Amino acid sequence: MTHYLVDNPSPEGVAALPGLTLLEFGVDWCPHCQGAQPLLAQYLSAHPRLRHLAVEDGKGRRLGRLYGVKLWPSFILLRDGIEIGRAVRPQSLDDLEALLAGA
């Protein structure tokens, strides 16, 4: 089963999303991405109204380049399409919870 959207949303589409959105950048075969899934599941279950988009990243992927993604997984929290927080390779639930601290 594929976790990440192969057909990336457009930057304009992402910028137009209302409210809070968590962008997750990675690829299915990445061991760091796989390892982050239990933390992510716990985080999302605690925040059921948070929109989550898992976006496949890599060479030639425009959305990841636009957000300056260098390591996977990268989690970027947006409010009304504007970045308000980022967690790269989170190691604990606290790393993800810190994203909402400023929201």
TrEMBL record:
InterPro entries registered for this protein in UniProt: Thioredoxin-like_sf (IPR036249), Thioredoxin_domain (IPR013766)
Signal sequence segment: none
CDD domains with a match to the protein in the record: TRX_family
A Pfam entry, by short name: Thioredoxin
Thioredoxin domain ranges (all copies): 19-100
Name recorded for this polypeptide: Thioredoxin family protein
